[in-house]
Specification:
The protein has about 280 residues and is an alpha/beta fold. It has three domains: about 90 residues, Arc Repressor Mutant, subunit A (Orthogonal Bundle), CATH 1.10.10.10; about 100 residues, Periplasmic binding protein-like II (D-Maltodextrin-Binding Protein, domain 2, 3-Layer(aba) Sandwich); about 80 residues, Periplasmic binding protein-like II (D-Maltodextrin-Binding Protein, domain 2, 3-Layer(aba) Sandwich), CATH 3.40.190. Helix content is about 45%, strand content about 25%. A hairpin with a 2-residue loop joins strand 1 and strand 2. Helix 1 packs across helix 2, helix 1 crosses helix 3 and helix 1 packs across helix 4. The longest helix has 29 residues.
Length: about 280
Amino acid sequence: MSLVLDDIRYFNTVSQFLNMTRASEVLGVTQPTLSYAMKRLENELGGELFIRLKNGLQLTQLGESFLKQGQVVLYEWEQAQKLVESQALEVRGRLSLGLHPSVALYTLEHFLPGLHRDYPELEISLRHGLSREVTEQVVSWTLDFGIVVNPKPHPDLVIRELCKDKVTVFSKDRKLNTLIYDPNLNQAQVVRNKLARKVRFKEVTSENLEVVAKLVGLGVGAGILPARVAKNQGNLVEHQDAPYYKDRICLIYRKEKQKSLASKTLIQAVLQAPL
């Protein structure tokens, strides 16, 4: 409990007995400590909470008003603690998971249906974006978990590798007259720049890997794709002599996120998924 909440709890007990000595005995603190806490509250509120009498204390108008508010604050705090404690013992609550849409298409099917079936009180909110954006959101507490590609080490993050992938060139006919790729992906840029040193080609860009894969499947050109995305298209072949970029797909989360049973259950389900 924080210092402010302690002061409110002390104030409620003093208000109950209207006697510093009796209140300090019940609370198990010294009378000077209790008196200092009441003076601290009065300084913060800008007025006196008690009238000091010879035979005890009497609440001022401010004290009576604050007693009602203080009881509400402590009740709400106790309810919040009970909620946290219940979630620590049960697989329930709401967790957020960020990942690139293309990563979602080949990972979620391996663990999300099972979680949804086995834990009806657990809600998972999915958010999609580039891996670097997801990582930033996990670090800043905006997201609970992320499944990202090639995360950089960070002192606040736990990084667990799930699987590997390979970004290279795929096509229907092994021709490279036109190159289709997502310019926002660093891996695609690396492969594209290496190719440009060897051959000339027209370019088509899209910020959606599924669109890239679809266009390649339609024969528009060759595409720079992760192998897992190309596999979903079904009719693409890899250019064996093309440059490539190795990917690590990882689960990331802050160290603090290992505490609740819901979080532990999600982590275990993702790590055990056959990716």
